[in-house]
Amino acid sequence: MAIVFASDQSGNKDIWVMKSDGSGITQLTTNPSVDIKPTFDEENHAVFISNRGMMRGIWSLVPKLN
Questions:
Q1: Which of 2, 32, 34, 60 could pair covalently with 47 via S-S, beta carbons 3.0-4.6 A apart?
Q2: CA nearest to 30, candidates 43, 47, 11
Q3: Is residue 66 part of a domain?
Q4: What is the tally of structural domains in the chain?
Q5: CA dist 47 → 9, 10, 15, 19, 52 (Å)
Q6: Nearest to 15 by CA among 56, 62, 55, 53
Q7: Backbone angles phi, psi at 54, to 5 degrees
Q8: DSSP letters along 38-59, please?
Q9: Does residue 28 lie within any of the structural domains?
Q10: pLDDT of res. 62
Q11: Which pLDDT score, from 0 to 100, does residue 26 have?
Q12: pLDDT for residue 66 is more than 70
């Protein structure tokens, strides 16, 4: 089980994931756009909102836990 969250700890609002015990924190996005409101879908893809390309849209990716 994993936890997906948004944080600005890298200086920009990005998406991060970690194991449920708090270990294996991994940054998933590094785009200069603002990435927010992450969640997991039924296939365990991280789904989030981003304003990439000057348009707000829904993005998804498959996270790999360290």
A1: 60
A2: 11
A3: no
A4: 1
A5: 20, 20, 10, 17, 14
A6: 62
A7: 65, 10
A8: EEE-TT--EEEEE-GGGS-EEE
A9: yes
A10: 85
A11: 94
A12: no
Tell me the one-letter amino acid at 54. M
5: tokens are 């969250």
Residues 12-52 have pLDDT tens digits of 999 999 999 999 999 999 999 999 999 999 998 999 999 98
Task: Measure the CA–CA gap between 42 and 54, rounded to whole angstroms.
Answer: 28
pTM (global) more than 0.85: yes
Q: What is the pLDDT of residues 41-65, one digit of tens each?
A: 999 899 999 998 778 999 999 877 6
User: How far apart (Å, rounded) are the C-alpha atoms in residues 33 and 35?
Assistant: 6
Is the CB of residue 35 less than 8 Å from the CB of residue 53?
Answer: no
- DSSP 8-state symbol, 13: -
| Domain that residue 48 falls in | 2-61
